[in-house]
Write a structure and sequence with these properties.
The protein has about 325 residues and is of the alpha+beta class. The protein is built from 17 helices and 8 strands. Strands 1-2-6-5-4-3 form a 6-stranded antiparallel beta sheet, covered by helices on one side. A two-stranded antiparallel sheet has the order 7-8.
Length: about 325
């Protein structure tokens, strides 16, 4: 990995900037995909190959622009990073880690380990050399939308998150005339704590999930400190908070720490999906963990590779229904 100053033209257009050379195949869109809460996530804007993200840093809010390009060292890829706002310097400093700069696939790609993988996974890795696991380091930003996804469909969780961010977030710091319309900085912990009960209700968030968010964010300062801990320790400490279990903690550290091993035990679909992909038969959480055990240390990488194949498990039985807690 190499970091260099951005060209003068790019540097002059932003409050802070740099250029990152991954020094290996790299896909910006596929790497950052797990961080977006759907195509209508108010904190992201995808414009072709360019990705914008608005968020809060310890120094204040920032608007981040990430633009991939070729023509790097030895003709390899590069990513131009620009930021605006009070948090611009902090956002740029954290950007390489966000982009997966610290994600090391060396052990996974070691020939002796690689040979133990199912053919499906080996073929997927061959086609997905450009994927990294992102590390946002922003605990609250990841924890809130994941709590909203507990025990409900993705559609209703994302609808609720979109409503609340638009309602209680703040406009992204302007990036000259190119600021994407509607880009919003998600609420800070203090702003989330100001959301009244009727707004959670209007968003379709049941009292159990809203109470978990409020309970967790009363410890927001301690939560943000977990970003500096190893993923396993961070996940364990998160689960001390009532309402945050194994599934929630795993989903968070996959995104905040780029954890290569955390598995979302308790997911409504994942165990059956992994079982069908690896054996042709559905299984439960215990069965999924047994199947993935030979690749401990890289189990999340295995799951990501299976997902990248586009595999779909056979569908049987009832689907999870969309619940409406709002009333009329």
């Amino acid at each position: 990995m190499t970091i260099a100053e951005a060209p003068p033209r790019l540097a002059a257009a932003a409050d802070m900037s740099l250029r990152w050379y991954p020094e290996a195949p790299y896909s910006l869109s596929r790497t950052l995909a797990p961080l977006l809460r759907g195509n209508s996530d108010p904190s992201f804007s995808v414009q072709g190959d360019v990705i914008w993200n608005a968020f809060t840093t310890p120094a204040g809010p920032a608007t981040l622009r990430l633009a991939p390009a070729g023509g790097g060292e030895a003709g390899g890829p590069l990513v131009d990073i620009q930021a605006w706002g009070p948090g611009a310097a902090a956002a740029v400093q954290a950007a390489p880690r966000l982009l997966g700069a610290e994600d090391d696939w060396g052990g996974f790609d070691d020939p002796s380990f690689h040979a133990t993988l199912p053919r499906m996974v080996r073929e997927a890795r061959r086609r997905c050399l450009a994927v990294r696991l992102p590390s946002s380091g922003r605990m609250v930003d990841q924890l809130v939308p994941i709590i909203l996804e507990q025990k409900v469909t993705v559609i209703e969780a994302r609808r609720a998150y979109r409503y609340l961010v638009h309602r209680y977030g703040t406009p992204a710091p302007p990036a000259g005339t190119s600021t994407p319309a509607g880009l919003v900085v998600p609420p800070t912990a203090a702003q989330w704590l100001q959301v009244p009960s009727w707004e959670w209700h209007k968003a379709g968030v049941g009292p159990q999930r809203s109470a978990t968010v409020m309970r967790a964010l009363r410890s927001a300062v301690a939560l943000e400190r977990l970003a500096a801990l190893p993923a396993g320790q961070a996940a364990q400490k998160m689960q001390v908070i009532p309402g945050i279990g194994v599934w929630t903690a795993a989903e968070v550290v996959q995104r905040t720490h780029g954890c290569p091993d955390s598995i979302s035990v308790g997911d409504y679909h994942l165990a059956a999906y992994v079982g069908a992909a690896l054996t042709g038969r559905r299984t439960d959480d215990a069965g999924m963990l047994r199947l993935l055990e030979p690749w401990r240390g890289h189990r999340q990488r295995v799951v990501r590779m299976i997902q990248s194949t586009g595999f779909r498990k056979p569908t049987f039985g009832p689907r999870m229904t969309i619940q409406d807690h709002r009333g009329y």
